[in-house]
Write a structure and sequence with these properties.
This protein is of the alpha/beta class and about 280 residues long. Helices cover about 40% and strands about 20% of the residues. It has 9 helices and 10 strands. Strands 3-2-1-4-5-6-7-8-9-10 form a 10-stranded mixed β-sheet, sandwiched between helices. Helix 1 crosses helix 7, helix 2 runs parallel beside helix 3 and helix 5 crosses helix 6. The structure holds 3-hydroxy-5-(hydroxymethyl)-2-methylisonicotinaldehyde (PXL).
Length: about 280
Amino acid sequence: MTSLSYVIAGSEATGGAGIQVDLKTFQALGTYAVGTLTCIVSFDPKNDWGHRFVPVDPQVIAAQIEAATSCHDLDVVKIGMLGTPATIDTVAASLAEQPWRHVVLDPVLICKGQEPGAALDTDNALKAQILPLASVITPNHFEACTLSGMERLESVAGMAEAARRIHALGPQHVIVKGGVELPGPDAVDLLFDGETVTVYSTPKIGQERVSGAGCTFAAAVTAELAKGTDIHDAARIAKQVVTQGITDRRASAAPFDAVFFDGTLREDVAARVQVATL
Ligand code: PXL
C-alpha cells in the first residue's frame, strides 16, 4: 500500500513555497499526499512582492482536519505555516485527537505583511502549543537562533549547541539548517537525536536564499518517515532532494528563484552530500 503523507500548512500562490511545494514533494517521493490549508499568502507584485496574508477560518481548518483524518489512517504529519494564534489553538486541539508516529514541525516564525505584535503572539503560541507536540523540528538559521535564545550562529559547533537547547524544549529530533546564513563554503544541516549529532553538508550553491527550500526539506523528511525510513536516512534524503531542487531552481518574474524537484534523485547530487558524526 502506498504510504500517506499529511501536511497542515499555508498556500503560497506562486507555487514556490508552502503547501503547493509540500504536496509536490510528497508525490515526488512516492507517497499519497493529503493537505489541510491554514492560510493563503499572495505576494503583491505591485508592492515589492510583499506578503498579503489571509487566514482560513478556524472552523474550516478543523473541518478539513476532521475530513482528512476520518478518511485516512494518517500517522505522520508535517506542520508548516499556521499564521495566527487562533489557527494554532485549532491545530493543537485537532492534533490532540489522535496519536501520531511523527509530527514534523517546520517552525515558520515570521511572515512579512503581518503586524509585528500579531507575529509575536503567533511565535509564542507556536512555542507553547505546537512545539511540545513535535517529534521532529526543522528550524533554519534564524528560527534556530530565536528558539535557542542564541544571539549568533556562526559555526557547526554553534548549530549543535542550538540543537541541544531546542531538544531540551521537547522535540526528540532537531534538524538545524545552516543555509546561506552560516558562514563558510558549505550548506550544513545538523541532526541531534538526543545522543548523536549528525552533520550533512554540501558545497553551497550561490549565496542567495531559494524560495521553498525549507518547505521541501521538511516535506521530504515527512514523506520518508511516512514510508518507514529511519530519521537519519530521512534527513540525508531530504538534504539530497533540496540540493537537487536548488540546483534545478526556477527563475520567474519574482525577485527570488524557487526550488524545483522533478522526483528522480540523481547520483551526481547524492555524491555531493557528505555525512559525518560530531
Ligand atoms: O517558506 C516559508 C513559507 C511557508 N508557507 C507559506 C509561505 C512561506 C513563504 O512565503 O508563504 C504559505
